From TrEMBL:
Signal peptide: none
Domain Cytochrome C Planctomycete-type: 185-241
Organism this protein belongs to: Snuella sedimenti
InterPro entries: Cyt_c_Planctomycete-type, DUF2231_TM, Leu-rich_rpt, LRR_dom_sf
Entry protein name: Cytochrome C Planctomycete-type domain-containing protein
Domain DUF2231: 16-137
Superkingdom of origin: Bacteria
Keywords: Membrane, Transmembrane, Transmembrane helix
Length: 458
C-alpha cells in the first residue's frame, strides 16, 4: 500500500511516453515506405500496409494515454503541449482511418483520392508532433543549440556569447552563475518545461520566481529558496536538481551563495564584488581566472571528429574549452555507473595533447588507471576530488608540468605525496582539504610552491 502512497504512479508510467512514442512513428514510416515500394515495384502490399497503420494507431493510443499521464506532471509550456497533444491525437485517428480505407481500397472508389492526401497530412503531422515533443523534452532551442551564430540569427535566436574567463573582465551572472544554471538546472527550468513554474534562463525570469514566489532574496542566500533547495540533503524530496541529475559541486554551491549574498547582481563584473581568496579559488574551479598564457600559446590541430565521437561513446563528456578552440575540456560524471577502465582511458588518450581541463571529481579511480594520466602533457586544470587517489597515484602527476589548478579534496593521500607535488612549479591553486597531509607538510609545500594558494581546510 505505502508503495502507491509514496510514489506517483501516474508519473511513473508517464515517463515511458518518450520511449513508447517511437513505436507509432516506426509503424507509420513503415506503412509509407511499403506504400512507395508497392507503387514502384507494382506489388500488392495492401495487407501489410493496412496492418502497419493499425499497429501505428494502436501504439498511438497507448502513447496518448502515457503522454497525458506525463503531462499531468505539470510545468510544460501550454501552447507547445497543446500542439503536441492534438497533432498526436489527430495522427492516431488518421492512422485508424487509413487502416479501414486500406482494407477496403479495392471496393470503394472514393477512397482513392482522399487516401494519398491523408497519407501526406499524416507524415506532415508526424514532423510537427515530433518537433514539438522534442521541444517539450529538451527545450525549444534544442535543435539549433549548437548551430553557428549566423543560423541562430536567422532563427531569431541570441548569438552564443563566448564565455569570458579573464578574472578582471568576467561578469558575475553571465560568466559564472548562468553557466551553472544552464548545465545543472535548465533542462527542467526552461521556456518549454518550467517545472515549479520557474525559469532559470534569464535575469527577469529568475527575479520573477516560481509558483511559490521569489526564489532569491538579494543579499541573503540563507533566506533564498533557490539556495535552500540546492543545499538540502540530496535524498530530500525538495532537493534540486531532482531525479538523480548531477548536483552542484561544492564550489558551484559556494559561488551561488556568494552571488546571492553579494546582492544577486546580473550586470556587475566579478571584480566589483567582494572577492576573498577562497572565492577566487572557487572561481578558478569554474574556469575564471586561470593564467591563460600557456594555453594561449598552444597551437594545436583540432582532434578528428570521429575520435571525439569514439571518446564520447566511452561515456566521457568532451568539448572545446570555448567556441571554436582546438583545446578540449573533459568530464566524466560521477553518476556514470561504469568505472573508468584502462580501455576507456586509452580511448581518451587519443586526444591527449589537446586536453587541457579534466574533471573526474567523485569518480573512484583504479590504481592501474591513474598512472596513465601522466600522459596528459598539456593539462592545466585537474579536478579529482574524492577519486580514491593514493600516494602511489600522485607520483604519476609529476609529469604534468603545466598544471595550474589541482583539486585533490577528499583523497586519502599523505605526506608521502609532497615530494611529487613540490615538482608542480606552475601550480596556482591546490586543494588538499580533507586529505591526510599534515599541517607541517602543508607548510613545507607552501615554501616550495611560491605564489600558489593551498586550500587546506576551513
Ligand atoms: C530533473 C528536473 C529538474 C532539474 C534538473 C532541476 N529542477 Fe528545480 N524543480 C523541478 C520540479 C519538478 C520542481 C517542482 C516541484 C518542487 O517544487 O519540488 C522544481 C522546483 C524548483 C524550485 C521551487 C520553485 C517554486 O517556486 O516552488 C526551485 C527554487 C528550483 N526548482 C531550483 C532548481 C535549481 C537551482 C536547479 C539546478 C541546480 C534545479 N531546480 C534543477 C525539477 C528540476
Amino acid at each position: 500500500m505505502t508503495f502507491f502512497l509514496e510514489t506517483n504512479i501516474y508519473q511513473f508510467f508517464g515517463r515511458f511516453h518518450a520511449m513508447l512514442v517511437h513505436l507509432p512513428i516506426g509503424f507509420i514510416i513503415l506503412a509509407v515506405v511499403f506504400e512507395m515500394l508497392a507503387l514502384k515495384k507494382k506489388i500488392d502490399l495492401n495487407r501489410a500496409i493496412s496492418y502497419a497503420f493499425l499497429a501505428g494507431a494502436l501504439s498511438g493510443v497507448l502513447s496518448i494515454v502515457l503522454g497525458l499521464m506525463l503531462a499531468s506532471d505539470g510545468g510544460y509550456n501550454e501552447a507547445t503541449l497543446n500542439i503536441h497533444k492534438w497533432t498526436g491525437i489527430t495522427m492516431t485517428m488518421i492512422a485508424f482511418l487509413l487502416f479501414f480505407m486500406k482494407r477496403k481500397q479495392k471496393t470503394r472508389l472514393w477512397t482513392q483520392k482522399s487516401y494519398p492526401v491523408l497519407v501526406i497530412i499524416l507524415v506532415a503531422l508526424l514532423f510537427v508532433a515530433g518537433h514539438n515533443g522534442g521541444n517539450l523534452t529538451h527545450g525549444s532551442d534544442y535543435l539549433l543549440e549548437h548551430a553557428p551564430n549566423p543560423i541562430r540569427a536567422l532563427a531569431g535566436m541570441e548569438p552564443i556569447r563566448e564565455r569570458v574567463t579573464d578574472l578582471d573582465e568576467a561578469l558575475v551572472y553571465e560568466d559564472v552563475i548562468h553557466p551553472i544554471f544552464e548545465s545543472k538546472c535548465n533542462v527542467c527550468h526552461n521556456n518549454d518545461k518550467a517545472k515549479g513554474d520557474l525559469l532559470l534562463t534569464d535575469a527577469e525570469s529568475i527575479l520573477k520566481g516560481g509558483k511559490n514566489g521569489n526564489v532569491i532574496v538579494a543579499g541573503n542566500a540563507n533566506e533564498s529558496e533557490l539556495y535552500r533547495r540546492v543545499t538540502l540533503n540530496p535524498t530530500h524530496k525538495e532537493f534540486m536538481p531532482t531525479e538523480g541529475r548531477t548536483p552542484l559541486t561544492n564550489e558551484e554551491t559556494m559561488l551561488v551563495q556568494w552571488w546571492i549574498d553579494e546582492g544577486a547582481h546580473f550586470d556587475k563584473k566579478v571584480v566589483e564584488l567582494n572577492l576573498t581568496d577562497r572565492i577566487k579559488a572557487y572561481l578558478r574551479d569554474v574556469g575564471i581566472g586561470l593564467k591563460k598564457t600557456f594555453i594561449e600559446n598552444l597551437d594545436l590541430k583540432k582532434v578528428d571528429g570521429k575520435v571525439i565521437e569514439a571518446i564520447q561513446a566511452e561515456g566521457f563528456k568532451i568539448k572545446p574549452v570555448s567556441g571554436n578552440s582546438a583545446l578540449l575540456e573533459v568530464t566524466y560524471s560521477s553518476y556514470n555507473k561504469e568505472p573508468i577502465t584502462t580501455n576507456k582511458l586509452e580511448m581518451l588518450l587519443k586526444a591527449k595533447t589537446n586536453i587541457v581541463w579534466l574533471d573526474f571529481s567523485g569518480v573512484p579511480l583504479n590504481e592501474d588507471v591513474v598512472p596513465k594520466l601522466g600522459q596528459l602533457e598539456n593539462l592545466v586544470a585537474l579536478r579529482m576530488s574524492n577519486s580514491n587517489l593514493t600516494d602511489a597515484g600522485i607520483k604519476a602527476f609529476e609529469s604534468l608540468k603545466h598544471l595550474e589548478y589541482l583539486n585533490l579534496y577528499g583523497n586519502p593521500i599523505s605526506d608521502a605525496s609532497l615530494e611529487s607535488l613540490q615538482k608542480l612549479k606552475g601550480l596556482q591553486k591546490l586543494y588538499l582539504w580533507k586529505t591526510n597531509v599534515s599541517d607541517e607538510g602543508m607548510k613545507s609545500l607552501k615554501a616550495y610552491l611560491e605564489g600558489a594558494t593551498i586550500v587546506s581546510g576551513l
